[in-house]
Amino acid sequence: MDLEKYSMGIGDRFGRQGEAQLAAFVEAAAAGRDICPVWNKSFREHRLVSSSPADVRAEADAAARALGWTKSYRVDADHVGLATIESFLEPSDFFTIDVADFIGKKADDADVDAFVRRMSRYCGELQIPGMTTPLNVTREAVRSIASRYLLSGREAGKVYRRILEAKGPDGFIAEVSMDETEEPQTPLELFLILAALAEEGVRASTIAPKFPGRFNKGVDYVGDVARFEEEFDRLVCVSAYAATEFGLPKQLKLSVHSGSDKFSLYGPIARVIGRRGAGLHLKTAGTTWLEELVGLAASGGDALALVKEVYAEALVRFDELVAPYLAVVDIDRASLPSARDLAAWSGERLAAAIRHESGFDINLRQLFHVAFKIAAEKGERYFSALAGAEKLVAEGVKRNLLERHIRPLFFAGQSAR
Asked: pTM of the full predicted structure?
C-alpha cells in the first residue's frame, strides 16, 4: 500500500466533523492538489473521550460516502506500541509506531558492535545528494548513535511485524515516530535510524523525527525559523538518500507532528519540498476541537455558557489536564483570565480569544486545547450544543484546514481556484 506524496493527519476529538474536514480536501482537489486525508486518533484520546478505533473508521467512511470522495483516505492508529495496538488492527490502515520510550535505552553491546561493523562502510565524509556539507561519519559516532537508538529500532520491528501478521504486506502504511523526545535528531542520527529500521524490515513510508524548536499544541512554532528550514532541508535530503540506499519505500517522507497552527513554518516547508520534489505528511493536533469551541462561543446563548463552563472547570483542574502535555504546552497560568472575568465576555470576544488569529490569547487557547476531557464528560449536552451550531462549526473547521493549513503548505506560489 503506497501513501500519496502529500498527506495530512486530521484529528477529531469527538468524531463529529468528518464531513467538514473532508470538504477542505475536496476543494483542494478541485483546485488541483490531491492531498490524502488521514483520520488519526491515539489510544490516550480514545480512553479520555470513551471512543474506539472502529469509531474513527466509521467516521471516515461515512464522510467519504456523504461527499462522494473516491480518492484515497486513511485511518491512523496514532502513537501505538505493542501494549496498545490490538484494538487498532482491524479498522486502521495507517499505523504510527511510537518508539520514543525506547530512545536512550542502551542496546546490547554485541548488537551495537555488530551494527557498527555493518555501518563501517559509510565512515569518512559521506556525501548526501543535495547537501553542500558531507556527513562526518566516525566509528565512535556510529557507536554512540547505535547505543541510543538501536533498541528503539528493534521495538519498531516488533510492532511492525505484529501489524504485518494481521494486515498482510499490502494492507497498511507504516510511520515511525520519534518526535516525543527531549533532543532533535541530527541528519546522521536519522540516516542510521533508517538503516536500523531497514534491517528490522520496517518499510516505513513516513518518519517523524524531533525537529529543533518547540511544537506546542495549537499555537505557532517557537524557535529559530531559519535554523528549522536548514535542518528540515538536510533531513529531507537524508531520508531520500536512505530510502534508496537501504531499500525503503521510494515515497519515504518526513512527517511533522503537532503540525497544526505552525504558520511561520509553512513557507519554509513549502520551499523545501518544492525545491527537493519531496512529499510531506503533516499531522494536526486538536485543531478541530478548538474550532468547535469557537463556533459554540460565537453562537451565544446556552452554547456560549457551556464553553464558559468548560473553561471554569479547566481552571480548577489545571494540573490534571496539563500533566500529559507538559512537553508540548507552555501556559502562563497567572496570565489566564479568571472564570469570573471570562463569564462577562461576549461570544464574539471569547471566540476571538480562542481562534488562532491576530489578538488571540495564547494561554487561554492552550488551556482549552487540553480541556477536551471536560467536554467529553458533558456527553450529550455537549453534542447537542454542537448540533445546534452545526453550520457555523462546520464552516470554521473547513476554513481552518483549507485556508490556514492546506493552501499555505500545498499551494505556495500559486493561487487555488
From this structure: 0.96
What pLDDT was estimated at residue 67?
A: 98
253 with 385, same domain? no
State residue 413's pLDDT score.
59
Residue for grid cell 469570573: 340
Please give the Cα distance from 292 to 388 (Å, whole number).
11
User: Looking at the structure, do residues 77 and 226 belong to the same domain, yes or no?
Assistant: yes
The rounded distance, in Å, linking the Cα atoms of 204 and 219 is 28
Q: Which residues does 216 contact at the CB level (< 8 Å), separation at least 6?
A: 222, 258, 328, 329, 330, 366
Residues 405 and 382 in one domain: no
Residue 302 within any structural domain of the chain = yes
Cell digits for 62? 461515512
Are residues 300 and 272 both part of a single domain? no
φ and ψ at 137, to 5 degrees?
-105, 120
Q: Same structural domain for residues 240 and 362?
A: no
Residue 127 falls within a domain, yes or no? no
Q: Are residues 173 and 220 in the same domain?
A: yes
**Residue 364, domain member (yes or no):** yes
371 within some domain: yes
Q: Which amino acid appears at position 164 of this protein?
A: L
Q: If residue 233 lies in a helix (H) or strand (E), which one and from where to where?
A: helix 225-246
Q: Cell 473516491 sits at which residue?
A: 70
For the cut 90, the answer to whether the pLDDT of residue 414 exceeds it is: no
Taking the C-alpha atoms of 306, 310, 312 and 317 in order, what is their torsion angle to the nearest 10 degrees? Answer: 160
Higher pLDDT, 412 or 256: 256
What does the alpha-carbon distance between residue 86 and residue 80 come to, in Å, rounded to a whole number?
Answer: 9
CA distance 24 to 37: 10
- What total number of domains does the chain contain? 2
pLDDT, residue 286, reads 83
For residue 158, the enclosing domain spans 6-105+145-287+400-410
Helices (H), 247-329: 263-276, 287-299, 301-316, 318-322
Please say if the pLDDT value at position 285 is more than 80. Answer: no
